[in-house]
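Help: read this over?
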Amino acid sequence: MRVNANLFWILAVFFGLSAAGYTLWSLIDYVNTPTQVEPITAQGVEWVGTVGITLGAVLSVFIAFYLTITKRAQGGELPEDTFTAEIDDGDPEVGHFSPWSWWPMVLALGLGFMFLGFAIGIWLAFIGGPIVLIAIIGWQYEYYRNFFAR
C-alpha cells in the first residue's frame, strides 16, 4: 500500500505540473496568434483541458491521501509491501462462488439488452428488464432447488 500511495502522490505532482504547463501553453499560444477567427476566451485559457487535468491531480491527491491514512491506521505492513512475503500471505477468503452457475451469464445478457435499449431503442430495455429480474432471483435462490438445495 505504501508503494501505491507513493505512486499516486507522484501522479498528483505530475498532473499539477501538467495543468500549469497546459494553462501557460494555451496563454502563450493565444498571445502568439494575432488573427483568430473566433477567440477561445477573453483571457486565452483553454478551460476544458485545464480543468480536466487539474481534476486528475485532485483525484490523485484524494486517492493518495486515502491510501496514506489507511496504511497508518493498519499499523503494519501489508504482505504486498514486504519482500519476504509468500503468495499465500495475501490470499484471503473472498466468499463462495458457484463455478457451475449459468445465472451470471443470463444477468449479463439482460443487462446488455437494457443498456443497448438505452442506446438504440427503449423497447430493448423492456425486454432486458424482466430478464435481469429473473436472473437476479434465479442466482439468489439457486441453492434452494433441485440437486444443490441445502
